[in-house]
Structures are given as structure tokens and as C-alpha cells.
Amino acid sequence: MPRIASAGLHVLPGTGHLSPLEAPLALASALRDFVAELESA
């Protein structure tokens, strides 16, 4: 992350490597927020 200026960390509690299956709505929300930040930059 230190090498990418706009990088961030978002932890999805209770998930592992299969976060799209374990928490699809939370992952979609995090991705939506990320894309919105890119679009507003």
C-alpha cells in the first residue's frame, strides 16, 4: 500500500479468501465506494 498513493485497506469482518461468497453485499459496497472515489478524483 505505501507505493500506491490512493491505496487503502478495508477489512470485511468474518471473511477470508472467499469474500465474494462470504460477504457479497459488503464487498460490493466497498468496491462501489472505491470506484466513486476514483470518479470524483
TrEMBL record:
It comes from the Bacteria. Gene3D superfamilies: alpha/beta hydrolase. SUPFAM superfamilies: alpha/beta-Hydrolases. This is Uncharacterized protein. It comes from Sorangium cellulosum So0157-2.
